User: Fold this.
Amino acid sequence: MKWKRSERLVDMTQYMIEHPHKLIPLTYFASLYQSAKSSISEDLTIIKETFEERGRGLLITVPGAAGGVKFIPTMTSEDVNEITQSLIEQLSKADRLLPGGYLYMTDILGNPSLMNKVGKIFASAFAHEKIDAIMTVATKGISIAHAIARHLNVPVVVVRRDSKVTEGPTVSINYVSGSARRIQTMVLSKRSMEKGQRVLITDDFMKVGGTINGMKNLLEEFNCELAGIAVLVEADHEGEQLVDEYLSLIKLREVNEKDGTIVLTEGNYFEKGGNNDENSNNN
Assistant:
């Protein structure tokens, strides 16, 4: 059965959104829809223009016999700002304040639609980096890690506090907790990563950076390379910061447990060049 152009456009768009960063040969679409490559190329031009006009992403064409087309999800600065301001508004409510200057974020992290947007924001920031896996520590960073991984089309690696029999042989390290200054343990299955992989580390909340620093040390044990760090909320900290280079979406500036006030601002996402508007226009 020969497909109509309208049918092809819908189906191709859906396929590329579900397979971001995957190089798809034009022959795949030509065979699937029983259409000439020239027709497929015209379809892709329409999709490319729509994606870029709406700020949904880039459609990269790779020439040559081994080439094809690749969808790169991106977000506009306006969309990122809208999502960030919405998060700030939600997280600024007094009843979210927890002892120790932490925020209750479980409902935010459990919102699939919101996490999908956060994941796309960070995936957009690292769209032009070579990333082989997303690493986080159990449990609250898992939803963010999976959201980023979905838009980068890479696996998730979950670091745990203790060994599980279902993990098989593991590698464990001791690290210093940044805020409590206690010695803690991290464990990761030996099968989780391969030597030489580039890994993006993410977490929901960073105060001093002890947990993230521990994950960085764990990467070294696997002979893997740090590709970047993405944090949903970072806390303003006067003392030593254990992590220097990272992207944060929101910054917790001040908390007053007595008055129940929470002051939040934008993180360093825009300052560090996290948004890819400029990069998008150059591709």
The first strand starts at residue 57 and ends at 62. The chain has two domains: 5-73, 77-281. The two ends are 36 Å apart (CA to CA).
